[in-house]
Every structure is written in C-alpha cells, then in structure tokens.
TrEMBL record:
Residues 158-279, 289-395 form the PRD domain. Keywords: Activator, Repeat, Transcription, Transcription regulation. CDD domains: PTS_IIA_fru, PTS_IIB_bgl_like. One of its GO terms (molecular function) is protein-N(PI)-phosphohistidine-sugar phosphotransferase activity. The keyword Transcription regulation applies. It comes from Vagococcus allomyrinae. PROSITE patterns: PRD_2, PTS_EIIA_TYPE_2, PTS_EIIB_TYPE_2. This is BglG family transcription antiterminator. InterPro entries: BglG_antiterminators (IPR050661), HTH_Mga_DNA-bd_dom (IPR013199), Mga_HTH (IPR007737), PRD (IPR011608), PRD_sf (IPR036634), PTrfase/Anion_transptr (IPR016152), PTS_EIIA_type-2_dom (IPR002178), PTS_EIIB_2 (IPR013011). Residues 399-488 form the PTS EIIB type-2 domain. The lineage of its organism: Bacteria, Bacillati, Bacillota, Bacilli, Lactobacillales. GO terms for biological process: phosphoenolpyruvate-dependent sugar phosphotransferase system; regulation of DNA-templated transcription. Residues 498-637 form the PTS EIIA type-2 domain.
Length: 642
C-alpha cells in the first residue's frame, strides 16, 4: 500500500473519531477530491478498512489489526525498483559500500539478478554525476559529496511515490527528532527576515537539512567549486537566515556546519524562498522587491509567449509573481542548484499546451541569459502560467447572481458572505433584495438564489434555506454545473458558427509537405476574404520559430500577428496521421485572428485547446464529416468541462 495511504490511515486511527473530508484535506494539504480518491483506493485494496458516513470517515478498528499484520510482511524489498532503491541506500550509507554477500542473503536473489540490478543502478546514478566501482566483495560509489546528497534526496522522493514531501514521511524516516517543532522554527526565522516558502517547499528544505546533518555526522563534508563567487551570497537575506539556521541545526542535530556547508545552505534558501510582498499588486512598488534586470527578463519572455500564442498575460500580479520566480531561477541557474519537481512528467502529459507555453518562456530566458534551464524548472514556470489561465477563466466566467432573503437580524448579509466564501469562484452576487415585493430586472442576472420559492421566472432560480445546509450546497453545486455546461455549449456554437464555414472544413486531404498544408488552408482563408496574401508568409515564419504540433494529434498554425480581416478557422481532419515537424498529427487547425475580435475568440480558444490536448477527445472528433457536425460535437464536449 502506498505510504500516503498509510499516513492517512495512521492519522484516522490515532484520532479515533469521525473526520470530515475537509478536515483530512486541510491536515494533509491536499484537495477534497484527493482525499476521496485515497479512501476509495484504500478500501479497494483492503475492503472495509475505512468506514464512511456521508462525508465523514473513521478507521474500522476491528479490521485495522489485520492490516497492520499484513504490512509487517512487506518490509523486505521484492520488486526490482524496491531492491535497487535499497541497494543505492546501502551504497550511500555504508563506508565500504554495498556488501555483495549480505545483499544476496538479505534480498533472496541470485548473483545474476544482483549484477543486473547493479547495471540498472549504474545507469540511474549517471544522471547524478556518480558512478560505480567494484572492489573485492563490495560495490562503491564514486563522485563528490554534493551529488551523493542529491542522490539521497532522489531516493527519498522515489520511495514516497515521487510526489511532494509530507511532514509525516519525514518524521517516519528521521524519527529521532521533533521535526514539526524544527519546521516551525525555520518558518519563524524566515518570517523574521521577510522571506516566505510554501508548505511543500519548507519540507524540501527540511529534507536537505536532515540529509546534510546525517552526512556530516558520518564525516562526509561538502566542498564548493573553487570558482564559486560567494560575495553576492553574503549580501543576501538568505545568508543571514542560513547563519541562524546553522545554530539551530547544531543544537538540534549535533551536526557542525562549516563555511562550505553554510554557503550550500544559503544557495538552497536563495533558490527556494521568496520575499514577502505586502504590496505585490502595486506596480509602482515593484522595484522594492524585484531588480530591474529580472523584471526585464520576465517581460521580454512573456512578450515572446504572447506573440506566439496570442494570449494576453499583461496583469501586474502575474508579472510580479513570475518575475520573483525568475529572479530565484536565475540564481539557481548561476550556481547550478536547481529545484526538483516530482510532477514534471504529469504536467507534460496531462497539460501539454500549458507546458508548451512554459517551454517558449524558458527558451526566451535561455536566449537572454545564456543559462541552460532543465525540465524540472520548466514545470514550475508551467505552474505560474496554468494558475494565471485558470484564474482568468474563473474571473471571466462568474455568474451574475441575485440573492433574495429576508432582513431578520442581518440574515441577508451573513448568507451573502457565506455564499461568497463557498462559491466565490463561480458566483458574483451583484444585488441582495430583502423583501418579496421589491422589484427586480431579472434580465440583469444569470441566477437568482432565494430563501423562499419564486414565481415562474425566465432566469434560472434556486431555493435554499437561511442556514445553507449540506443539501443546499449540493443543489447549488449542481445548478452552477448546469449553468456552466449550457454557457460553454452556447458560446462554442455561437462563435464557431461564425468562425467556421463549410468551405473551410476539409476531410482526408493528403499533401506532400507541411508547407503545402499551410499554403492549402491559407489559400482557403484568402479566398473567403478573411486574410491578405501576406498571411501565409506570417504563418510560415511563426511555424519556423516553434512548431505548433501538440500531443501527436493536432497542429494549430497561425500568424505572428492579429491582422486578419476576420477571425476564422480553416481545418483538415485526416484519418491517417501525417508528419508535422518531429510529430505526427491528424488535425490541422489554422487560425486567422482579427485584433478587434480577439476577446470573443479567447472565450472559446482555451476550450478548443483543452479538447485537442486530450488525445481521446481529439480522436472522437475525427468521426465528424462536416463543419456543422464539428461545431455540434465540439460544443457537446466543452459543455462537460469543469
């Protein structure tokens, strides 16, 4: 059973009470949905282990002892991955290395299996700039201390499902220390110097300190490269924090940090902490927190993304937060001390378009600075971009809501505030009426929420109680989902009917080259009067900068500007994949965009990207045979999106 499930079970067992989904989500810093998934998977693996009562959960104490007994039989590594992680730990922690005889006896494996494991380990540790050498009956690691510690951190992540670290996992692995108190001390010191890290990052810092302390206690000291410029580091707040943490580490873990260790800890803090910004939304005070160089880097990189993908990122809060991240990223790049991101593969596969935006952003940063930026860092940039796009979507899609409620002892205000807290991402309460007789213009609203039944209205309405019960919340959630589905479907049909004509919809067109496809579709748009003759050259130039193929299913060629006479689509759907750069695609969707229509186009563009970023949905769309079928099926799909 996964360790995360085990920690959830252990917490439920120790509390010995009914706990809600929300309580569990808050304790483990995960979403409500993740809690429900964990519990479903636990009960799938071990039937009846967690009892459920509506949205509350409790461990079945009659079944739990059987679960514990079964877990105790699972300690010896059995799978190749488990064995190799164990063997790498032995290579790191034993002074002489991995004893082959002891490994054979403990793991119950043959000589050939052990040698096979060593070959696999040799490949894995090469990524950490380490190698293996055999001396007598031992295998030993070869490489410097910095890379050994990086390997130990990597092993810890792998043993914990390659995910973000939780404090419970650290406490179990390093049980001799009070890590919760020590983590609080780290936060306290950071806050005193106006620095901030999130919960997951603080655990990463804590893991670094724990690994470093254990290595130091075993007489393994780190050495910085001789050409490391330390002058700049000594001027930072992070250096002051590191000096205070040095005292805490030596007191709590008995590990003495020399000057090299102090600088190494400073590098870590520089790469992972952010300056607290009480005025981060005020563009006039940006210079207090961000140096002009980092801001310029960020603005130039964002402009590159905007030019290629026609998305407007010009919002001060986004630019400020991204510039802060870029500042730290440049420091990490300077000292080759990058941040691991366990979600890289997940983001690349499930959020292809967002990741592509991050790649363009990264390429611009690399071109401006000359630094090489690895995949793990691209994923953090994708987080910023994805968060911005999601927030913009929420702001644009709120339903204008009227609340009708009596004014008994301020009931209406309390209810309005509660609705805002629970549904503020979806609803904007723009008016509160407190009497039944008050007149209203229902055309101004998308939804009417009332504490007493309304007469038949043209506007969507729902009746709830004054106290907003669990049933009320569920009913409102369903109503909002219905409204979102209808709006998505309506918007897609309205705009796509205007943007796509039957003459620009093509099935099974096979040409000799990528350029030929671009000329073919651009010619259709030209003949419809949507673009001028120069349009095709702008599309070719854009494609040469970065191929628009995504997910081996779709290419979306478009111009570098928004100078089209009219926003429109011209597309080809092929049953057989065709080459497009390094990819193959079955859809080619060419866009022409008129600047004045850009806002209305943006309303559907993200949804189209969402459909065609999903291979299964994109393949479903291949069944359509006409522009009308394409529009209808696309509208049906986007109506189901969250």
């Amino acid at each position: 059973m996964k360790k995360r499930y085990h920690y959830l079970l252990l917490y439920l067992y120790e509390r010995n009470d009914w706990l809600t989904t929300k309580q569990l989500a808050e304790h483990f810093n995960i979403t409500d949905r993740t809690v429900r998934n964990y519990i479903a998977n636990i009960n799938h693996d071990f039937d009846g282990l967690i009892l459920k009562e509506r949205t509350r959960y409790k461990v079945n104490r009659l079944v739990y002892p059987k679960y514990v007994l079964e877990q105790r039989t699972e300690n010896v590594p059995e799978t190749p991955n488990e064995r190799q992680l164990y063997q790498m730990e032995q290579l790191l922690t034993n002074e002489k290395g991995l004893n082959l005889t002891e490994a054979l006896d403990y793991l119950f494996i043959s000589d050939s299996t052990l040698m096979s494991d060593m070959r696999q380990i040799s490949k894995k540790i090469q990524e950490h700039h380490l190698s293996l050498q055999k001396r007598g009956n031992y295998f030993q690691l070869v490489g410097d201390e910095k890379h050994r510690r990086a390997l130990q951190s990597w092993i810890f992540y792998k043993k914990n499902d390659d995910s973000f670290i939780m404090i419970e996992e650290l406490q179990q692995a390093f049980g001799n220390y009070d890590l919760i108190s020590f983590r609080a001390k780290i936060n306290q010191i950071l806050a005193a110097h106006q620095l901030f890290v999130n919960d997951f990052t603080i655990n990463s810092i804590l893991l670094h300190i724990l690994i470093s302390s254990e290595r130091i206690l075993n007489h393994n000291q780190i050495e910085l490269p001789r050409d490391t410029d330390l002058t700049a580091l000594e001027q930072t707040k992070e250096f002051l924090v590191a000096k205070e943490l040095k005292t805490e580490v030596e007191t709590n873990f008995s590990a003495v940090l020399d000057q090299n260790e102090l600088y190494y800890l400073t590098l870590l803090l520089v790469s992972k902490s952010t300056k607290l910004m009480a005025t981060e939304n005020d563009p006039h005070k940006i210079s207090e927190f961000i140096d002009p160089y980092s801001l310029k880097l960020t603005q130039t990189a964002v402009a590159a993304v905007e030019e290629l993908f026609l998305i407007n990122f010009q919002q001060d809060e986004f630019i400020v937060k991204l510039a802060l991240h870029v500042r730290n990223l440049m420091l990490r790049a300077k000292y080759h001390n990058f941040s691991k991101n366990p979600l890289t593969d997940t983001i690349k596969s499930s959020h292809t378009f967002i990741y592509e935006l991050a790649i363009v952003l990264t390429n611009s940063l690399q071109e401006q600075t000359g630094y090489s930026i690895p995949e793990c860092e691209i994923t953090y940039l994708a987080f910023h971009i994805g968060s911005f796009i999601e927030q913009e979507k929420k702001l644009a899609n709120k339903f204008k809501t009227l609340l009708v409620c009596d004014n008994y002892q301020g009931n209406h205000l309390a209810l309005a505030e509660k609705l805002k807290q629970l549904f503020g991402d979806h609803l904007e309460i723009i008016q509160v009426l407190t009497t039944e007789t008050a007149s209203l213009n229902e055309k101004e609203f998308d939804l009417i929420i009332s504490t007493y039944p309304q007469e038949v209205l043209q506007t969507e309405a729902i009746t709830i109680s004054h106290f907003l019960t669990l049933d009320d919340k569920e009913s409102l959630t369903k109503k909002i989902k219905q409204l979102e589905n209808r709006r998505n479907k309506r918007q897609m049909k309205t705009y796509m009917s205007e943007y796509l004509t039957s003459t620009c919809f093509n099935r099974n067109v096979y040409l000799e080259s990528q350029a030929a496809y671009i000329h073919y579709l651009a010619q259709q748009l030209y003949e419809e009067g949507y673009v001028d003759k120069q349009f095709v050259h702008s599309v070719m130039e854009r494609e040469s900068l970065s191929p628009t193929a995504m997910n081996n299913i779709v290419a979306i060629p478009h111009a570098l500007n928004m100078n089209a006479f009219k926003t429109a689509f011209a597309l080809i759907a092929n049953d057989t994949p065709i080459p497009w750069g390094k990819h193959t695609v079955q859809w080619i969707i060419m866009l022409s965009i008129n600047r004045e229509e850009a806002n209305s186009f943006q309303k559907i563009y993200n949804s189209i990207i969402e459909v065609f970023s999903d291979n299964n949905l994109a393949k479903q769309m291949l069944h359509v045979t006409s522009a009308k079928e394409f529009i209808d099926h696309l509208a049906e799909l986007v109506s189901t999106f969250d």
